[in-house]
Design goal:
31% helix, 247 residues, elongated, alpha/beta, 6-stranded mixed β-sheet
């Protein structure tokens, strides 16, 4: 049997098990399994690996995308560039290699969602965690300027109090890379001046459960375009599958 899984602290919101279980059924892979592994701490990974010798690949989610590094043998260029790991490859010679497929998933989903314009594109990225780091890399690759927004910003980042209506108006693309609004805390949302949103705004929420977050609802109420993270999830999952099955 080949076993795959997702590690994180709380996984009640995750769709990964359903996604990969359906994929295994579609491909006729009866001896493949995908499990959810809730770990209280990143250090508990060592115990998990000892208990599950048939593990052939892992996905990584909050809050371990940055904490898992010490337990890996190598970082692929994708994860080194981002500074976060969301996929672990188990090589034939027993090494554990960290990859990042969030950049691929986000970038392709954004291409389909957000129309580029003649004027310089500007984005607000909410959050500074592992998911935000992948968003940063993707935006830089696409030539989209951005500000990072958080409660406790580093360097030249912005706080939520800095988000005036004028600043929001000047940034048509707003990306929620925080967990605020994830099931079961569906009434949470980033503290933005939502009254400043217009039909010219595009709100991309990396959350996919619920399908329509409070962040997105505020955008819809203002006539803005909105998208959740489900397509990104599928795209990054397919990229992970390719890594686990490469020759």
């Amino acid at each position: 049997m080949k076993e795959f899984g997702l590690i994180g602290r709380t996984l009640k919101h995750s769709f990964s098990q359903t996604y990969f279980t359906q994929k295994f059924q579609d491909l006729g892979l009866e001896d493949y399994r995908y499990e959810l592994f809730e770990l209280p701490e990143a250090a508990d990974l060592a115990q998990l690996l000892a208990a599950r010798p048939n593990l052939a690949g892992l996905n990584v989610t909050i809050p371990y995308k940055e904490q898992i590094w010490p337990y890996l043998d190598e970082l692929a260029s994708s994860s080194a560039r981002v500074g976060a790991v969301n996929v672990v490859e188990f090589t034939a010679d027993g090494r554990r290699v960290g990859h990042n497929t969030d950049v691929t998933g986000f970038q392709e989903s954004l291409r389909r969602f957000y129309p580029r314009r003649d004027a310089p594109d500007r984005a607000l990225v909410l959050g500074t965690g592992g998911a935000s780091k992948a968003v940063e890399v993707a935006l830089r690759d696409l030539g989209i300027g951005y500000w990072l927004v958080s409660r406790n910003p580093l360097a030249n980042g912005l706080t939520y109090d800095d988000l005036t209506p004028e600043l929001v108006a000047a940034h048509p693309l707003i990306i929620n890379a925080t967990p605020l609004g994830t099931f079961p805390n569906v009434d949470d949302c980033p503290p933005l001046p939502y009254h400043a949103l217009t039909p010219q705004h595009y709100l991309f929420d990396l959350i996919y459960n619920p399908a329509e977050t409070k962040f997105m609802q505020h955008g819809l109420a203002a006539g803005a375009h909105v998208l959740n993270g489900f397509e990104m999830l599928c795209l990054q999952a397919e990229a992970a599958w390719e890594i686990w099955n490469k020759e």
